[in-house]
């Protein structure tokens, strides 16, 4: 996915290649999940729920729960066993615990045009949505091919971790449009400055 559709004062990104990694991206360049409205936009933008799913029942406890899960996933993705086994084991236990809950139940229904569309069986609860993200994290850390494709963005001060599915596994940036473009602009400016000097 490309950049999210959320508007200022926040911009959400969905280009890390996995929902759990997109959740990690919500810390850059600053905390994004600081309100229920932003979390609703992230939940919809990430594809956890169909675009027309009502999330009016989300309350102020939801952002804290998603931030807590984000921290545990970050430990699993960045801190492989051996580099702090206690923290890693705690994160693993917590993610496994959250993954136990059944994720939102999808169903196929006829849309207004007669085509089949995905809808949820009812309003999704926070535990069900957390479970969907936690299950994605479990799938990621237990898949050796996916783990081998994890990369840290090479952009200046960019902490985003993404799944490199590019041909030849040579992707350098979390997003060519964001960090890649910044790097190309900086390179151009350096060359222009050398030419002037």
TrEMBL record:
Gene3D superfamilies: Jann2411-like domain. It comes from the Bacteria. Residues 150-191 form the Zinc finger CGNR domain. It holds the Pfam family ABATE. This is Zinc finger CGNR domain-containing protein. It comes from Streptomyces swartbergensis.
